[in-house]
């Protein structure tokens, strides 16, 4: 477990399926899911993948929780041991947005990935039409490195992605 201010980061459990289904129920999150989470067994498959990645060292996904339950997810995936790098991602449930949950979780898991996970560089990207995600990245100590034009496609629409990175040698965010 990792402490992130008033929040706790813990590995996902198979019994978190209800929370996962609820998190991906809204249209903004539904398009982020690998499959519709209301499909039979979808949340369980999503959780099994997180648990398997953690066990194998391919990635570390944490449920962000407080006394009211699951507030979101923060993860380091695409880990390259050759280069000591990883890709950081995060999401929060609607009721947790605007409360500093994602910034606290992203900053805490980045510090953990550097100190405990042995990584040197973490990268993340967000759609340029998502300024809240940019605020999360900056507050977690990630510096802007560039723009990937029309990188993502959802349906027929393409989106630019702003890329950020944080190095183990960067100063910790204030």
Automatic annotation (TrEMBL):
Gene3D superfamilies registered for this protein in UniProt: 3.40.630.30
Domain of life: Bacteria
The protein's name in its UniProt record: N-acetyltransferase domain-containing protein
A single GO cellular-component term on record: cytoplasm
InterPro entries per UniProt: Acyl_CoA_acyltransferase, GNAT_dom, Ribosomal_N-acetyltransferase
Domain N-acetyltransferase: 7-173
Pfam families assigned: Acetyltransf_3
One MF term in the entry's GO annotations: protein N-terminal-serine acetyltransferase activity
SUPFAM superfamilies: Acyl-CoA N-acyltransferases (Nat) (SSF55729)
């Amino acid at each position: 477990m990792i402490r992130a201010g008033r929040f706790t980061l813990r590995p996902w459990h198979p019994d978190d399926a209800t929370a996962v289904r609820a998190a991906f129920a809204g249209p903004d999150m539904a398009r982020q899911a690998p499959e519709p989470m209301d499909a039979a067994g979808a949340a369980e498959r999503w959780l099994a993948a997180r648990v398997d990645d953690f066990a194998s060292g391919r990635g570390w996904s944490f449920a962000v929780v407080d006394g009211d339950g699951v507030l979101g997810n923060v993860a380091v995936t695409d880990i390259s041991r050759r280069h000591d790098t990883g890709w950081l991602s995060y999401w929060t449930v609607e009721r947790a947005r605007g409360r500093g949950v994602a910034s606290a979780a992203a900053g805490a898991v980045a510090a953990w990935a550097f100190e405990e996970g042995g990584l040197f560089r973490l990268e993340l990207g967000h759609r340029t039409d998502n300024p809240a995600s940019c605020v999360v990245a900056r507050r977690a100590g990630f510096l802007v490195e560039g723009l990937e034009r029309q990188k993502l496609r959802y349906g027929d629409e393409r989106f630019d992605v702003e890329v950020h990175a944080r190095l183990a040698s960067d100063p910790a965010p204030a």
